[in-house]
Structures are given as C-alpha cells and as structure tokens.
Amino acid sequence: MIEFYQSKWFDIDLCNVDENLNIKKLPDHSFYYKFYSILLERHSSYEQVKQHVLSCNQPAIKYLTDVISSKGYKNILSIGSGIGFIEYELAKNNPHVNFYANDFNIESYFLLGAASLDNIKLSSTLMKNVNYDLIYLNNVDYALSNQHYDDLLQQIRGLSNNGIVLSTVVFKEDLKIYSIIKNIFLKYFDRKSIFWGYIRSKKEHNQIIKNAGYKINNKILKKHHNILIMSEELK
Ligand SMILES: C[S@@+](CC[C@H](N)C(=O)[O-])C[C@H]1O[C@@H](n2cnc3c(N)ncnc32)[C@H](O)[C@@H]1O
In Å, what is the CA distance from 150 to each residue of 83, 117, 145, 208? Predict the structure, then answer.
C-alpha cells in the first residue's frame, strides 16, 4: 500500500481547506465538510461541476445502469456519495429506483442540486432498515485506512441482497513511473500538498475483502477505473 498526496481537488488548494491537515493526517469528516462548503461557495449549481466529475465516473455509471436495467433493482445504497453526482445521473434516468446516498454531512453537500429528485434519499448515518438490492462505494476506498475499510465492509454485511460493488479502485500495480515520481515530489517538495489517501495492491484489496467476510465474484479491470463485484461469504 502506498500513501499518496494531492495539492488540488476541483481546482481548490487543499492546503487552505483545513489548517489541521498536514502531510501525515488523513482527511476526516471535518475536512470533507469544509471542502464541500468551499465548493458550494464557488459553484452554485451541480451543472457547473458536472464536467469535472463526468469522465472519471463513466465506468461506474455504465455498470450500474446496466445492472439496474437487467436485474430490475429497486433500492440502491451509495456510501461516500460526495456531492451526489453519480446518484443524480442514475436517479434521473431511473425514476422507479430509490437511491439512498450516504456521506458525512450529506445534506449540505447535496445543496449543489442533486437533492431535487424525489427518488434520492439522503442520510449521514447508515440506513439499516432498507432491504438494499445493491450497495456501492465509488472512489471511497482510497480515503479509508485498512482498519476503516474493514470496519465499513463489516458494517454493511447483511444489508444487501445482491452484493457490494467497489468501483474506481486504483491498483498500485497500474501506477506509471511518472505517477510514482510525482507522488514523491508532492510528499517531500511541494509544501501545498496534503496526505490524500492510499493506493493498495490487488493482493491487499483481496486480503481486506476476504477478512471482512466477502468474496470477489467478478472484476471489470480498466486501469484507473477498476470495478470489484463481491458478495458475502457464509461465516
Ligand atoms: C472522492 S469522494 C467520492 C464521491 C463520490 N462517491 C464520487 O465518486 O463522485 C470520497 C467521499 O468519501 C467520503 N467518505 C470518506 N470516508 C467515509 C466513510 N467512512 N463513510 C462515508 N463516507 C466517507 C468523503 O466524505 C467523500 O465525499
């Protein structure tokens, strides 16, 4: 597993978001709350940030669209949904499907516009009283320590009928030499960078998934947009 560093996200200088963050501290709920508040101040509508998130989330949107239409799913939970870009795109094209979006302070993030659809339900806590057809985490694993990754997978055990989808997982094996050198530069020489998260190897993902009681049933491998489809193992 490697730690990786970042200086900007959505064109916002990350070092200015939270003075408590530094090169050693992983962003927490307070960081994401402050970050999304700045994003909201700079962009009043969802359409303004759409281009920024569209291309990198296409593989997940395509996979989820296909699986919703082929399997007739009705209740889908997204964990770590951020500003709700994916949920908005899916919900407007699938009005009969309920999308449950979970993130820290999700109600504030969604002010960007995605909350306007009736079939999107927001919550900052895990809603356990719904029988989910599918649960997905898009681009969230990087933000979790091994312990938090394992805890989260354990918490959602038993909540989904048809499994869990982890998408936009980046594998350490796919990093180009340029990205590795850039990461070293950001860590040691760019004073505006912060610790952003983790990139794990395939083996490390497999180990955490197995320890949390799941097995991987299928993989869609596309460099930086890998999708892992898994189900619970009987304990
Ligand atoms: C890169 S964003 C991804 C947002 C969205 N899923 C997407 O792909 O556009 C990562 C999100 O994970 C959320 N997050 C991090 N740790 C989390 C946790 N333990 N539970 C729920 N959300 C978490 C952050 O608040 C942030 O919004």
Answer: 24, 32, 9, 6
Q: Domains in the chain, please, with CATH?
A: 2-232 (3.40.50.150)
Compute, in angstroms, the gap from residue 233 CA to the centroid of ligand 1: 25
What is the β-pairing status of strands 98-102 and 2-6? unpaired
Answer for the pair 56, 225: CB distance below 8 angstroms, yes or no: yes
Taking the CA of residue 11 as centre, how many other CA atoms within 13 Å lie in the half-sphere pointing to its CB? 9
Tell me which residue of 139, 174, 114 sits closest to 57, measured CA to CA: 139
Q: Tell whether ligand 1 has an atom less than 6 A from the beta carbon of residue 138.
A: yes
* Nearest atom (ligand 1) to Cα of 109: 27
Q: What pLDDT, in 10s, does the model give residues 63-113?
A: 999 999 999 999 999 999 988 889 999 999 999 999 999 998 877 676 665
Distance, in Å, from the CA atom of 6 to the CA atom of 9, rounded to the nearest integer, reads 8
Binding site membership of 104 for ligand 1 (Cβ less than 6 Å)? yes
CA proximity to 170, closest of 148, 145, 141, 194: 141
Say yes or no: CB of residue 142 within 6 Å of ligand 1.
no
Q: Is the dihedral of CA 174, 180, 9, 126 positive or negative?
A: positive
CB 77 within 8 A of CB 102: yes
Cut 0.90: pTM above it: yes
Pocket test for ligand 1, best of 14, 49, 64, 104 (most atoms within 8 A of CB): 104
> Is the distance from the beta carbon of residue 216 to the nearest atom of ligand 1 less than 6 Å?
no
